[in-house]
Write a structure and sequence with these properties.
Layout: E1 2-6, H1 10-20, E2 27-31, H2 34-41, E3 48-52, H3 60-68, E4 78-82, H4 87-96, E5 100-103, H5 108-121, H6 156-162, H7 167-193, H8 197-211, H9 217-231, H10 235-259
Parallel strand pairs: 1-2, 1-3, 3-4, 4-5
Helix pairs in contact: 1-7, 2-3, 3-4, 7-8, 7-10, 8-9, 9-10
C-alpha cells in the first residue's frame, strides 16, 4: 500500500516517512511540493494521504481541495499533520475533505494507529475501534554522547519515546535538523526584516514544525511567541521574540550536533 506524504519541511517528512514505513506492507511516496504531489496523483492512487498545513505553493487545505477533484480521490483518507490549533482552520479543512487531524508534537503510536485505521476502515468510517499498533522495544543503550550541562533544552528520553525508540530515525532527523535549521531561521529573519507579517507567520510555523519533532518545550514556546506576534501583525514584538527564539533554536541544534555528529554521508 502506498502512502502519500506531502510536506515541505524535511525533518517532519523524514520522521513521518520512517514511522509510516514501519506499518505492514506500507511504502511511502513523498513530495516537498504540493503541486508535484497533485501531478503524481493524476496517474496514481495512494491508499492514504498525509499532508502538512503550511506549505509555500499550496497549503494543506488548498491541496486537499484540489486533490478531491481528481478522479477516484473522493474516498481516499486524508490526514493533516499540523502545529496549527485554530478551530476555524480545522472547520474549513473538514468542509473541503480532510478526514482527521494530528497535532504536532505527535506520538509515534498515535500516528501509526490513525494511519492503520484509515487503511483498514476507509474515509467514511469511525477510527475508534482499533487498538494501537505496537512497536518492538529497542534498547536505550545507544552510546550517544550527551552534552555535559544541566540545562539541556532537549529531553532525549521523551524524544526517543515519541519516535518509537528508533535510534536510527532519531539520528537521521537530528542531522537533517542541524543541516536545515539555519535556512529556516534565515527565512523568518528575512520576512521580519521586510516587515512581512504574513510571511513571517508562515516561516515561523515551518520552523515550529521542525522543532516539534523533538521534545524541547522551551524552544517550541519561544517560536509560538514569534508566530503569535506575527499573526497579530505586531512586527516589533515578533522581532523581539525572534531574537530569543533564535538563540534557543541554535542551542538545540548545538545539542543535537554534539549528540549526533554529521558524517561524510548524507543523513
Amino acid at each position: 500500500m502506498e502512502i502519500l506524504i506531502v510536506d515541505d519541511e524535511p525533518v517532519s517528512r523524514a520522521a513521518l516517512k520512517t514511522l509510516v514505513e514501519k506499518l505492514p506492507d506500507c511504502r511511502v511516496r513523498e513530495f516537498a511540493e504540493a503541486a508535484a504531489a497533485l501531478s503524481w496523483c493524476e496517474a496514481n492512487r495512494p491508499a492514504v494521504v498525509i499532508v502538512g498545513y503550511v506549505m509555500p505553493d499550496l497549503n494543506g487545505i488548498e491541496f486537499t481541495r484540489a486533490f478531491r477533484k481528481l478522479a477516484g480521490a473522493a474516498d481516499i483518507p486524508v490526514l493533516m499533520v499540523t502545529a496549527n490549533t485554530d478551530r476555524d482552520v480545522r472547520n474549513q479543512a473538514f468542509e473541503i475533505g480532510v478526514n482527521d487531524f494530528l497535532n504536532k508534537p505527535y506520538d509515534s503510536v498515535e500516528l501509526q494507529t490513525r494511519v492503520a485505521n484509515m487503511l483498514a476502515l476507509g474515509s467514511k468510517q469511525s477510527y475508534s475501534q482499533h487498538a494501537p499498533v505496537r512497536q518492538q522495544e529497542s534498547t536505550n543503550k545507544t552510546g550517544v554522547a550527551q552534552p555535559q550541562r544541566l540545562d539541556l533544552l532537549l529531553d532525549l528520553d521523551l524524544t526517543r519515546k515519541r519516535l518509537a525508540d528508533d535510534e536510527t530515525l532519531l539520528r537521521h532527523v537530528a542531522r537533517v535538523f542541524v543541516r536545515t535549521v539555519p535556512e529556516l531561521l534565515n527565512a523568518v529573519r528575512t520576512a521580519l526584516a521586510a516587515n512581512d507579517s504574513e510571511r513571517a507567520y508562515a516561516e515561523a510555523h515551518s520552523l515550529k514544525g521542525a522543532v516539534a519533532v523533538f521534545e524541547a518545550p522551551r524552544v517550541l514556546e519561544a517560536i509560538v511567541a514569534v508566530e503569535a506576534h506575527a499573526n497579530n501583525y505586531n512586527a516589533a514584538a515578533a522581532q523581539s521574540a525572534f531574537v530569543a527564539a533564535q538563540a534557543l533554536v541554535e542551542r538545540l541544534a548545538s545539542e543535537l550536533s554534539l549528540m549526533y555528529p554529521q558524517d561524510s554521508r548524507a543523513a
